[in-house]
Amino acid sequence: MPHSLKVPDARVVFTPSGKRGYFPLGTPVLQAAQILGVDIDSVCGGRGLCGRCQIVQATGNFPKHKINSKSENISVLSDTEKTYAERPKKSLQDGRRLSCATKILGDCVIDVPADSQVHQQIIRKEADAFDIEIVPPVQLHYVEVWQPDMHDPSGDLRRLREALEREWQLKDLRFGPGMLLSLQRELREGNWKVTVAVDYLGQVIAVYPGFRESLCGLAVDVGSTTVAAHLCNLRTGEVLASAGVMNPQIRFGEDLMSRVSYVMMHPGGDREMTKVIRAAINDLAVKVTTQAKRELDEIVEVTFVGNPIMHHLLLGINPIELGGAPFALATDESVRVRARDLDLTLHTNTRCYVLPCIAGHVGADTAGMILSEAPHQREAMTLLVDIGTNAEIVLGNNERLVAASSPTGPAFEGAQISSGQRAAPGAIERVRIDRETLEPYYQVIGSEMWSNESGFEKDTKGLDITGICGSGIIEVIAEMYLAGILSQDGVINGALAEKSKHIIPDGRTFSYVLSQGKHNIQVTQNDVRAVQLAKAALYAGIRLLMERMEIETVDRIRLAGAFGSNIDVKYAMVLGLIPDCDLEQVSAAGNAAGTGARIALLNYESRQEIEEVVRQVEKVETAVETKFQEHFVHAMAFPHKVDSFPNLAKVIDLPAETNMQNYADTNRVRKRRRKKR
User: Fold this and answer.
1) How much is the pLDDT for 242?
2) Is the same domain home to 395 and 418?
3) Which residues constitute the domain of residue 356?
4) What pTM, to 2 d.p., does this model score?
5) Which H or E run contains 282?
6) pLDDT value of position 2
7) pLDDT, tens digit, for every residue of 448-485?
8) Burial code of 647-671, b = ≥16 C-beta within 10 A, e = fewer?
9) How far is CA 191 from CA 143, 146, 149, 188, in A?
10) Domain tally for the chain?
């Protein structure tokens, strides 16, 4: 009898979750996703009727995942998919497939679009309340133009110029050639009464039939994880609508360097990423104008902030030079272009202003944060920290500013964490641990109740508790340290396994079980290490700036960005994300980069201000600083190996230093448990 040949397994990675596994050839993609707990929607039970389980195969070589994802590594378009695509109002566009009808035939990377996920991403980048002095970049002027007749041969443009000078004393205005293409139609459609939009440089941007009271501008924060847009009334400064989406470039790489690596490995990859980010901005423009019941052609001004790699990709510049020393920018100056040059489907004359960058890894988003927080106008020594996959740090006051970036990675956003996920309904976002029993209790996004309160299960019945997001990761690890489960060096105390069922052997180490149910959510030793590496990189960068400024303490700390705005500052300090400071002087700055974009949108004078300020910022390059590694090693400890935290000690009892070297032996614990039986 011949021996049966074992069918080889295929390696599959799902993005943006990062979940991965091995599956037999012929396994439906939906089945693989469900086994791994990937967040993917399906209502019809895999019958190909609902179309909610759509996915996109990312093709190409992915060294990070050790996968060559070839197009032939998934099955060809099936009859089920063809039938679905032929149904009225149904489609499979942009290379999308139905995961229920697509089979795995080899190693592949599968992207789950946001609209195919059950738990839609919460983009926590709403516009923050902020006082902005309105100096509009565009002014509106309503005029009545004399109609042509047989006795006056002058052209329509000349008579419009005369009306603007007669009624508004506006002389020497500049009209672009494109204005002539629609001018006659607009004048006649408005019965010779039109509203003219003129910018602060005397350029006519648009002519609208009839009377217009206001126009709009769009402030866009192009983050590596999320893209947020705020539609503003240029006259009043009012935020008319805000919207955000996941950055579609995530499927090319979770972090910035992964995307640069993708470009290096895939010639033309930069053009792919430029195309998808511009498409996302167009979609956001439609979304916010629809919300506000305005028209796309009412947007006449757009401002952008973003880190240097996002900045380059938005502008269509290959970011490959930012992938290695000396991290040269194509330009560190502000950029002014037409919206049509960025393939944005707005008014034909809409202008875009991109804030200046500071250095290779300190970009226009940092410039926006400086413009928003204005440390250069304060005497207090201020630390600004925007925590993302790449943290930007600014330190200083009205005498001097220094800045740096630190490669924190995506751990704070849930990636690289075993039960991690981005902020979405059902994600654990708050954690407390009883100091005596080591019993955990938590809150999830979508409910105000704690898990130890009666009624919690009823209140969260409609939520699937799927994982733990960034703020929850910070709190659970800080609480584990405060409860004695973690040593100062970040080792899980396996000896406590006899005391608590929540501490379990996990290979050669231990894990802490946070929640059990449909999804077992736990914190592993590797999770702790991932957070330690991220927070040590951030703290080491901060220490370098403090040394450059020759100071030992800071007066105030502002945490910017979506992540920084949703973490408890006390726990951030317990972990050692930030240096010791009076906790009353530590606060969230909200989406400071986005606020800076709004300031630049609504006050054109601020553009010159930030252009002057960023030229005075001193850049510290962490990659070449010899002391970075020393600071990094010390910062691995909770909250720090050598730095003291007297302000923190006033409000919380920090554990005494313990040596957990012998507590990671799972065999010893198992033997003791057997003896007890």
Assistant:
1) 94
2) no
3) 216-366
4) 0.80
5) helix 269-292
6) 45
7) 999 999 989 888 888 878 889 888 999 999 999 999 99
8) bbeeeeeeeeeeebeebbbbeebee
9) 11, 10, 15, 5
10) 5
